[in-house]
Amino acid sequence: MIRKTLKLATLTALSATIAGEAFATEWNVSLWGKRRAFTEHVEKLAELVSAKTNGEFTLNLSYGGLSKNRENLDGISIGAFEMAQFCAGYHADKNPSITVLELPFLGVDSLEKEIKVSKAIYAHPATQKDLARWNATLLMPSPLPQYNIVGVGNAPKTLKDFAGLTVRATGGIGKAMTAVDAVPTSMSASEVRQALDSGVVKAVAFAPHAHMSFGTVESGNWWTTNLNPGTVNCPVVVNTDALDALTDAERDVLLGSVDEALQHYVDTYNGKTMDAWGPKLKEMGIESVTYDDGELAAFRTAVAGPAAKAWIEENAKRGLPAQELYDLAVKTVSGN
C-alpha cells in the first residue's frame, strides 16, 4: 500500500513537471562577444520577462553560440532562434531603411535622442516592410554614443593626417573617413583586435564600451576626443512568427518591458561605462587628439550633405521613401 502511494505520488509529481514544461516558453537569443554595455538592455529584458512570468517565459542569451553576428538576421529569417541583435552596417543591402540612422553628422548628441530617433524610424511602415522580408520585427535599438577612433603609430594631429590611414569603420562613419582620404575597412567587432595587432588596420572607430571590450585600448596609443562622425545602429529584432505565437500575456510582458530595459541600458552606459572610460585611457597612456572647431565644421560640411544626398538617391531607387525617412530622422533629432 505504501509502495502504491509512493508510486502514485511520483507519477503525479512527474505529470506536473511535464505539464509545467509543456506550457513554459523559451526563446533563444543570438548575441556576440561577451556581456557588456552594448547588451545590457537584452540582459535586463531577460531578467524582467522571467520575473514577470514567474519563470514561465525565459530568454536564453547566447554570446556567439548560435550564429555569427553578420548572420543573425539570416538566422531570424529561418527561425533558427527567436531574438537577435545585429548592426545595420554589417549588411546594408539587407536592411537599407535603418541605415539612414547611420548617416554621418545627424546631430544625435545623447543616448536618449538616439533611442527617440531609432524608434521613429523603426515605427515607419516602410521600415517594418523592409525588415518583414526577413520575418523580423524590430523590438528595440541598442543606443550608442558618437564614435571616436583609437589607433596605433603616429597620431593624426589634423584631419589631413588621416590620408591613407586604414580605419575599421562601417556605415556612415566609413563614408566620413573616405571624405578625409582615409581607407575604411568593414569587419565585425570580434575581428578588430587581431586586425589592429597584425597591421591590417591602423585605427578603429568604436564607441567607448567597445574600445574597452574588444581591447583596442590595449594596443592603441592615441584616440580622437571630438571627431564624433556618427554612430552605428544595432537593433534587437524578434522572429515575427515567434512573436505572433506568444500568448497575449507573454507578448504584453515582452513589449511592456522594453522601455525599462532601455532605461537600464542608458543608466549603465552613462554611469558605469563612461566612469571607466577616462581612467582606462589614463591607465594605458593613450594620447588624446582634439581637433579645432574650424576643422570639424569643414569636415561636417564636406561629409554630411553629400552622404545624405547619396543615401536618398540610392535608396529611392530601391523603392524606399528615402527622402521621407531622412526627413523623419532629421525632424526627430531636431525635436521639431
Write the layout of secondary structure elements.
Blueprint: H1 2-23, E1 25-31, H2 40-52, E2 57-63, H3 72-77, E3 83-85, H4 111-122, H5 125-132, E4 136-140, E5 148-151, E6 166-168, H6 171-179, E7 183-185, H7 192-198, E8 203-206, H8 208-213, H9 216-219, E9 222-224, E10 236-239, H10 240-245, H11 248-256, H12 258-284, E11 287-289, H13 293-317, H14 322-334
Parallel strand pairs: 1-2, 1-3, 6-7, 6-8, 9-11
Antiparallel strand pairs: 3-10, 4-10, 5-8, 5-9
Helix pairs in contact: 2-12, 4-14, 6-13
Please compute the radius of gyration using only Cα atoms: 23 Å
Query: How many strands in all?
Result: 11
Q: Low-confidence stretches at least 5 residues in length (pLDDT < 50)? A: 1-21
Number of helices: 14
Secondary-structure-derived class: alpha/beta
Strand order of the largest sheet: 7-6-8-5-9-11
Shape: globular
Name the assembly state.
single chain
Distance between the termini: 79 Å
Helix content: 40-55%
- What fraction strand? 5-15%
Largest sheet entry: 6 strands, mixed
Order of helices and strands: HEHEHEHHEEEHEHEHHEEHHHEHH
Mean pLDDT: 92
